[in-house]
Structure formats: C-alpha cells, structure tokens
Design a protein that fits this description.
mainly alpha, about 35% helix, two-stranded antiparallel sheet, about 90 residues, 2 strands
Amino acid sequence: MKKRVVITGTGCITPIGKTTKEFWENALAGKHGFGPITHFDKDLVKTSLVAQVKGFNAKETMGRKSVSVLTAMLSLQSMRLGRHLLILA
C-alpha cells in the first residue's frame, strides 16, 4: 500500500508575519524579525536582541487550554535541550 500525505492548510505565527501570506512576503523580501526587547524587562535575560512576535495574543487566538499545553511542551523541550526559554503566555 502506498502511503500518502495530505496537507490541509498552513499557518504561521512568526516575528515576520502572523499569517502565511504575510510571512511569505516578508521572507521573500529578506526581512527578519530581530530587534531590541520590548515585551518584557530586558534585565531578565543576557541578550538584548530577540525575535518577538509583536501584536499576538496566544490566549485570544488559540484558547487558554491550548496555550497551557503548548507552554508545558515548550518548557519540557527547552529543559531537554539544556536551554532556558522565557515564555510569556
């Protein structure tokens, strides 16, 4: 039996676009999402250059339960990689 993959849609939430169209246009234009920290106290981290997703509220878009699950998964992944991850959800 031949295995098949079906892509039913795409979605992007990135520093250079919160929709697939916006992301793709900015990627093709060579834009990046790096800039100074503006969403939280920069003294909490050792860097001052980050790639923030501006104007995005995960709880409004995904719902409270999905955000909780995603936050837990990201925390576990960052511990597995031995890196610290600051999650503001």
